[in-house]
Write a structure and sequence with these properties.
The structure is a single chain. By secondary structure, the chain is mainly α. It has one domain: Glycerol uptake facilitator protein (Up-down Bundle), CATH 1.20.1080. Helix content is 68%, strand content 8%. Strands 1-2 form a two-stranded antiparallel ribbon. A hairpin with a 2-residue loop joins β1 and β2. α1 crosses α13, α4 runs antiparallel to α7 and α5 packs across α10. Its main location: membrane. InterPro entries: Aquaporin-like, Aquaporin_transptr, MIP, MIP_CS. Belongs to the MIP/aquaporin (TC 1.A.8) family. It is a multi-pass membrane protein.
Length: 349
């Protein structure tokens, strides 16, 4: 038999999926979203685009500044900047859009049925738009030289870069999988993510006089193969983490931003010199389009997707060995907290 708590939880899940979730504040039950679903989705897409924009603007911007100003930021500084901006934007927009900021992450969530497929193109579009705008902003702000290119290109061979990207992307998604909140509370956003990436790239281009040397996109340092491997690996790590923190009800959701941010810092330190540590198609496409540099661009589309999907799969595989799939996927820490708040309110009334 199902308990009253389970029934309330199932009802809350249904409301969230329909965009009619309720929450309690001060003992009064208030509707989180009373406007049509299209309005709510629009807000999520805007949040995703803005988040992606600032991730690209700050992350790529520090790359340009470091090159144009004699390495004043230093490589460790660049790594920390990437991790911090992602962490900040997760806490700023995570409760609105889910803070994907990455087409590969959105795609992986959809593959594992934690994100509506029909929203995937919208999220990707928003992410690419944010990336392009940020890249354009950087190009306008800086005189970007070839040496200061802020995109991602393999340092030597594409194979090495590909391996690196797969590994770090795997780690990233593994972390995300372990610490993030239930993706069902956040619709899909590939379009919004791309929009955010484009906007961030545009902002950077407008703010800086970006020279070719200060290009803030991603291109293989040597061969596309190395860059592809690198992207697959780091993307796998990224999605593994995302899966753990975003979809596992046993994880501590409040630490999601820290876990994902630290993972990105680690990945940039390790794979940065090889592939640029993209882990995100939007991060590489925005600068590439704005600056017209497409060297090894396929590495940064294929690598992160392979690594992130693999990372999400592995985390879900090891998680499902503990409990039945149906039991694990029916709720998350976020939904349980919402139900607990509603139960407490009902008891006090």
């Amino acid at each position: 038999m199902t308990s009253n708590g389970d029934e309330i939880e199932e009802e809350e899940i249904s409301r969230i999926e329909k965009g009619q979730a309720k929450n309690c504040h001060g003992g009064i039950e208030t509707v989180i979203c009373t406007s049509p679903s299209i309005v709510c989705l629009t807000q999520k897409l805007i949040a995703e685009m803005i988040g992606t924009y600032f991730v690209i603007f700050s992350g790529c911007g520090v790359v340009v500044v470091n090159v144009l100003y004699g390495g004043t930021v230093t490589f460790p500084g660049v790594c920390v900047t990437w991790g911090l901006i992602v962490m900040v934007m997760i806490y700023a927009t995570g409760h609105i859009s889910g803070a994907h900021f990455n087409p590969a992450v959105t795609l992986t969530f959809a593959i594992f049925r934690r994100f509506p497929w029909y929203q995937v193109p919208l999220y990707v579009g928003a992410q690419l738009a944010g990336s392009l705008l940020a890249s354009l902003t950087l190009r306008l702000m800086f005189k970007v030289t070839p040496e200061a290119y802020f995109g991602t290109t393999p340092t030597d061979s594409a194979a090495r870069a590909l391996v690196a990207e797969i590994i770090i992307s795997f780690l990233l998604m593994f972390v995300i999988s372990g610490v993030s909140t239930d993706s069902r509370a956040v619709p899909s956003y590939i379009g919004a993510q791309l929009a955010g990436s484009l906007l961030a790239s545009l902002t950077l281009r407008l703010m800086f006089k970006v020279t070719p040397e200060a290009f803030f996109g991603t291109t293989p340092a040597d061969s596309a193969a190395r860059a592809l491997v690198s992207e697959i690996i780091i993307s796998f790590l990224l999605m593994f983490v995302i899966s753990g923190v975003a979809t596992d009800s046993r994880a501590i959701g409040e630490l999601a931003g820290i876990a994902v941010g630290m993972t990105i810092i680690l990945n940039v330190f390790v794979a940065g010199p090889i592939s640029g540590a993209s882990m995100n198609p939007a991060r590489s496409l925005g600068p590439a389009i704005v600056m017209g540099v497409y060297k090894g661009i396929w590495v940064y589309i294929v690598g992160p997707i392979i690594g992130i999907v693999a990372g999400g799969f592995v985390y879900n595989f090891i998680r499902f060995t503990d409990k039945p799939l149906g039991e694990l996927t029916k709720s998350s820490s976020f939904l349980r907290k919402a139900s607990a708040n509603n139960n407490a309110s009902s008891s006090n009334s």
